[in-house]
Structure formats: C-alpha cells, structure tokens
Amino acid sequence: MSSTRIFIRRHGRRIAIALLTLPGLSGMYTAHAASVGTDAWSAVDPRIGTGGDGHTFPGATVPFGMIQLSPDTAMPDFKHAYKWAAGYQYGDSSIMGFSHTHFSGSGHSDLGDVLLMPIAGDVRLEPGDPARPGSGYRSRFSHDSEVAQAGYYAVTLSDYGVRAELTAGRRVGWHRYTFPAGTPAHVLLDLRPSIYDYTGKVLWARARVHDDGTVTGCRTTRGWAPGRELCFAMRFSQPMVSRRLLDRETDVVYKGFKGPGNQPVDNDAQNGRALVGVFDFGALKQPLEVKVAISPVSEANAVANLDQDGAGWDFDARRAEAKAAWARELAVVDIDAPKTARTQFYTALYHAMLSPTLSMDVNGDYRGPDHAVHRAKDFEFYSTWSLWDVYRAQQPLMVLLHPARSTDFIRSLIAAREASPFGILPVWAYQGLETWCMIGYHAVPVIADAYIKGVRGFDAEKALQAMVASASYGPYGDLADYMKLGYVPIDREPEGASKTLEYAYDDWSLAQMAKAMGKADVAATFEKRAGNWKNAWDPQTGFMRARLADGTFREPFDPTAAGYGSDFTEGNAWQYSWYVPQDVAGLIGAMGGDEKFVAKLDALFDAKVDPAHFKHVEDITGLIGWYAHGNEPSHHIAYLYDYAGAPWKTQARLKQIMDSQYAARPDGLSGNDDLGQMSAWYVFTALGFYPVTPGSDEYAIGRPFVARASLHVGNGRTFTVSATPLDDAHPYVGAVTLNGKPLARTFLRHAEIVAGGELHFTMQAQPDKRWGTAVSARPASMSAYRP
Questions:
Q1: How far is the CA of 643 from the CAs of 90, 593, 773, in angstroms?
Q2: What is the C-alpha to C-alpha distance for residues 596 and 185, in angstroms, rounded to an integer?
Q3: Could you tell me the residue ranges of all domains in the chain?
C-alpha cells in the first residue's frame, strides 16, 4: 500500500487533490475517483448504531486508525454498562468528555482512554450526576448542535457555551475548542474513567508537564485485558497560565482501602490511581487547539508519534486529511441508489473499515500478548480482533475490496502468535493483548480465506504453522477432548455443542489452505476433523446438541434454551443447528433432504417468539422467529435456501431482513455492529452475494438492493452489479447474466469478481422456481456433488 496521502483543501469551491495509489485499486487517484469518494463520504452518517444496541460511536477516526476520538455520555459500572459499550448513547442528554479510544459495536468493552473536557468558568473535578445539571464537570448538549461526519465530530457544550470540534489522524487526535469571549478557559484531563468502569480499574497512572508545555503520562488498567498500559503525549496551541495535577484517591475504593484525600502533590508531576489535571488558559481571543498522541508502549513513543504524525497547528487541514482518507477508502465502491439507501450502504462500509486498528508506533514498536515490546520492521501491526464476529463477512469484505490491507492484517496475526506465551493465534485481542473472549480459533479462517482468494505478501509456511498450533492446543476450550473424542463434552467444558461445530468449521478452512499449499497430510487430518459436526447432530430431535464425555446427549434438552450453561454460545439449538457452513449439503442430508430442510428453515423464520424469551441474553436481538439477526450465528442462514434448491426463498428472506433490521437512524442496527460484521453483512447483501463459507472461493448469490454498484477491484478492473427493475414490486430474481451470458448457478467465484465484468439481475414480481435449482447450480459443500 502506498503511503502517499491525499490532501483536499477548500479554496472557495476549488479542491486540490494529490495523486496516489490505492489499496485494492490500481493506478492514480483520479479526479473521477475523488468525486466518487467525496460523494460516498458525504453519505456516511456515523450516528447510525449509536442508539439501541448498535454500540457504535459518532466521533472522529480514520480508516483502521489507532485513534477513535469520540464523546462519552456515560461510563457506568460493569453491571449497568452494556448499552454504553462505545461510551455514547444517543438517548443521553449530557457529555462527560472526549476520550481517544473506543470499540465500534462491541458486545463488551474497555478503553475510553485520556478523557478531556473543555470547561468555561468554574472547574469541578467530578463528572457529576447526569440527572443533576451542574453537579459536576459534565455538560448538557443538544443533538441539534451535533455534526457527525466520517473523520469529524462537533458539538456545543451548552452548559459552558463551548463549541468542541474533533478530528483524527492515524495516531493523533485533534481538538478545537471555541470558548465564550471573556470567560476563563480550562481543559480538564481525567485519567480515572474507563468504559465499563470497574471499581479500582485503574491500577496506576502518572502525568507530568514538561518545560515546553507538553503533557505526558500513562495509565495501567485491570479491565478486559488485564495489565493494559496506554501512554499519551499532549500539546496545546496556547501557553498555560497555570495548572494543577491532583490525585483524587478518595474516589477510588480498592480492596476496602480509601485514600488520604484530595491533595495536589506537584503541579509538574503526579502519580496515583485517580489522577486529574486542570490546565488553565485565561480568557482566549481565539480557539484553543489540543493534539493528543497515544502509544501502547511508552511516553517517549507517544511523544515521537506526536512529533511525526502531529506536526503543526492547522485543525482544518487535519480535518481535510481525515475526509480525504475516508474518500479514498470509500471510493472502492460506487453505487447508484436513493439517498437513504446510499446513507445506509456507505455508513455500513464506513463501519466495516474501523477495525482492526493500528497498534504500532511510528518507530515500529508494538505491545504483544506477552506484554513485551516488539518491533515490526516491514509491516504495520494491527490489533482489535473480534474474530468470532469478523471472520464471517468483515474480513472477507476487506479481502475483496482492500487486499493489500489484508496482508498486514495477516502478518499482524502471525506476529501476535509468535509473541504469545501459548503459541497460538489471537482469539479476541486489542492493543496487542488477549482477552480470551468468545470461542473457536477463528483467526484460522481469516488467514485461509485470504490465501485461497489470492492474498499474498505474508509467510504462508509460518501462517500454516500458526493455524495448526492454534487448532492443536489442548488446554484451549477443551481442544484436548475434541481431538480425542471428536466433540467437546458438555460435562467438561461449557457450550460444548457450539465449540464442536465451530472447531469443525475452522478445521475445514485450515484444510483448504493446506491443500492449496500442497500439504496433503495436514489437509487430510483437518478435513477429517471438519466432519466432527456430525457428532453434535441428533437425528431423534432434529437439532444439534451437546454430548457428555460418555457419548450420550445431555438431558433434559430444550431447543429454545440459550445462555451461559446451555449447550450453546449466545444462541440456542434453533439458531446453531444451521452452523455447518463447510458442509451444508451434508446437513441437508442429515435433515432428510431438500424439502424437509427448507420446511425447517421456514419454521425457524416463521415461528412466533416473544423477545422476552432472550431477556437474560443481551446479544440475541433482531428476532424474525427464532432467527436472530442481531447476533452472528444467524448471519449465514438466509442464504442456505440456495443450497437446497430454493433460491427464491433466500431472496424473500433477505428482503425481510434488510427491511426490518437496518435503518438510517441512530437505532438503525438491530444488534451490536461487532467491529463491522453487522455492517459487512449489509454491504455484501446489498451487492447481491455473501461469503457463507470463508475459506472457499465462492459467494452465495442472493439478490441486490442497489440498482448499480461498481467495485474497483484492482489492476484497473471494475466489477459491476446491476439490477432492473429494482423496486418493492419486483423482489425476486428472474434471470442472471455474467458478462452477458446466462448464469444458471447460485454462486459466484472470487476470481470472476476480481477479473472485472458485469453481473446483471433481471428482477420480477413473482418467484422464479426454476432458476438456480439444479444440484449442479448450488454452492459447494464437503458432501456436495459438483460436475
């Protein structure tokens, strides 16, 4: 990927654009591409998903950047924090400050590092109660004053009359605060709060003011990734007239200990577990700019990041660069759709390009899962890996649209494995550290999918070794029993059915990469393990179930039961019984053939289910019958009709999902966006195809939801998807052509897309029950016949 940047500066109505090479695109960034990217950028609404359970943030960031500078409306205690996983909820009426790190759409959380709050007038040192304005430093705000764009956020803090503007670079967050004339201006730094705040979560922090006015510091927390240290360096565009650094130890209760009091110890340096800094600037005649760099390694590295990535004082130029970075990334797809559909599509594409995040300093230093410092010499290290989610569609979308980035992503996974004390690939990692959240070894299909689809530039031998090591590490998730028995016994490991099914799929993807590399022995071993899904299948009940170590199924059995302690992870038997993406044809056979398979799929979608049934499982949302679009185990299910010769039913279910589960408003996501997975599902489905089985070279065909989409797939090639007529009166596919020739099958090959060409759908009012129904027309499966 070229490091050449695009700069867009406004001079009246003129825009000057530098030429550059794009990841996933070839040649120069032309004026036409700039126009496409700018139009796409203007369609993005970062507020989508900030209400309900979407868990997105509205603040400023750049594609895959280290900084996510966003407002925080609350950081409640862990038991009450679910809706504030991104620090912000659209329904809140006050802001407690702007912090520099956030997850987008996660179901669990941490971060909220280096919180700043501009204050006009008197300074309070506690956030205060949102229900009692004036009780602390937080301020009320109105959504009417908010501006949320890709790379920029602004809001008026009504209690102070301060206009706060935010933008971001890759490692630096930029603030611009306009204070009321004649009012003393202050900036408060609070190193105590964290998203999903735990009592005593901050183990230790330090802050100091250097002779040149640079403020640096670090804090160590015991949150989701225990022992995480993050450092920062901060500079102001105006000199301070005074400052205070305080340790508010009385606010921290740790193992029954309360500190001695609110004691300012030193105005130049302070250590403790409850640090607050107040920086005073007097009455300002011009806006105050603040720039903050972060580092997962050290204060010195944070200063180096600030020096290199944060030179100068030109907020508008930095904002233009952030806009240009997004225009560049979004220009990879050009769609023809009504305004609302454009907003939904490009916001989804935007959300899909937020993670994984850069987690490396300008000198190449990064923190590994061993907590040690490592150095990347010829690649960029990325972290923030919600792998249970993103292997399904978000990472395959990057392989398709930005394959050059995928190379660095995979090299990062391999580097993390090499630094792992356990010698395995990441499971759910951020800022280089491991959380062990969720199940499976889903870094394996991320790597396999990229390799099968032609991504190179990484050491495939090292990658395969890492994949095998991860799939063979007995202590993880009871892999020892899985390798011995062919399933995970529920009396030895919770959620045994889910783990059996997900391990079997991961094994299959590993086998595909081994096969492509000519490693026949490795491929045979894991191809055999891929059939272990059959050990979870109970033909008597017609559902997947967990077995005991003695081989019997656990009793009693309720296919509607979900939650920790059940057979399944964030799901029930109705949802997980479809999780055999590597062998859908085998599952169809187990269920009794096409008709029974389709009938059971219909029963899944058409069931009458009270959402209160899942009130104890936060993540199961977006119900259509038992189908739960708000959680990942359901995401491939609507496409399974293709495998049973009923593609018209896939088309109908996709419209049902798109119409009910997505909207261009703050509560427009039916569940956690999960670092872009929910959004990537939307992007693929809108384009008309979906990667049901990452690790294969095929995409199942659904139906498009945009009239025309041009994918710039590299080397000057464009793949166009078009549909006529596309409206609610014509929801079904009548005919499909690929490059002008009839396409009778319900799958596309990756090579057909990246070669360029056109996929055209002729839509009609009634279902076509002939197109795509032949066995030879169906997507591949382990057990499928393919002439």
A1: 41, 11, 9
A2: 70
A3: 63-240+281-313
DSSP assignment of 514-571 equals: HHHTT-HHHHHHHHHHHGGGGGGEETTTTEE-PBPTTSPBPSS--TT--STTSSSSSS
Backbone angles phi, psi at 544, to 5 degrees: -75, 145
CA-CA distances (angstroms) from residue 127 to 86, 479, 531?
18, 46, 55
Spatial separation of the C-alpha atoms in residues 88 and 493, rounded to whole Å: 36
Residue type, 450: A
**Predicted confidence band of residue 1 (pLDDT cuts 50, 70, 90):** very low
Exposed e or buried b per residue across 16-47, where buried means at least 16 C-beta atoms within 10 angstroms of its C-beta: ebeebebbbbeeebeeebbebbbbbbbbbbbb
100 with 69: CB under 8 angstroms? yes
Q: How far is the C-alpha of 569 from the C-alpha of 158, rounded, in Å?
A: 44
* pLDDT digit string, tens, across residues 571-626: 999 999 999 999 999 999 999 999 999 999 999 999 999 999 999 998 999 999 99
Amino acid at 629: H
Between CA 471 and CA 479 the distance in angstroms is 8
Q: Whole-angstrom Cα distance, residue 51 to residue 49?
A: 5
Token readout for 173 is 């967050």
> What are the distances in angstroms from CA 393 to CA 172, 307, 766?
29, 37, 29
Q: How far apart are CA 344 and CA 664, in angstroms?
A: 6
- For tokens 């997850």, name the residue: 103
Amino acid at 4: T
CATH 2.70.98.10 is held by the domain 63-240+281-313: yes
SS3 of 301, please?
helix
Q: Taking the mean position of all CA atoms in its chain, how far away is CA 73?
A: 21
Query: Mapping DSSP to helix (H, G, I), strand (E, B) and coil, where does residue 253 land?
Result: strand
The 3-class SS string of 257-282 reads EECCCEEECCCCEEEECCEEEEEEEE
Encoding tokens for residue 219? 């804090």
Helix axes 443-452, 496-516, angle to 10 degrees: 30
How many helices (H) and strands (E) would you count in the chain?
18, 43
User: How many whole angstroms separate alpha carbon 61 and alpha carbon 676?
Assistant: 14
Helix (H, G, I), strand (E, B) or coil at 363: coil
Digit-coded pLDDT (tens) for 542-558: 999 999 999 999 999 99
Q: In the structure encoding, which two tokens stand for residue 340, read together?
A: 């609302």
